[in-house]
Request: fold
Amino acid sequence: RSSVEMNDPASRPEIAKQVENMDMYDTVLVGFPIWWYVEPKIIDTFLDNYDFSGKTVVTFATSGGSDMGKTDSILQKSCSASTKWVNGKVLRPHADSKTVENWINSLNL
Reply:
């Protein structure tokens, strides 16, 4: 699947279920696996389908070795200028619940 998406940057897979009442959220954490230093295209679909104006968007990714690359700068373009963007963190396979909890607490949301 990642190879198909990598060959078509305009790919926008369909979201199976829409988020109801997105307006009730002030902060949205967007998580995904990193595929060759970029996000899966379903993440682009998600960001394209909602208005994040006035919200905080925090990205995070899972990866065995890749870092975020330019993922955040690419994704941020999908949101309005009034979106507060928090650059992502890569969580490695060895990350335990305490590591994740410490990272979330460090965000001071």
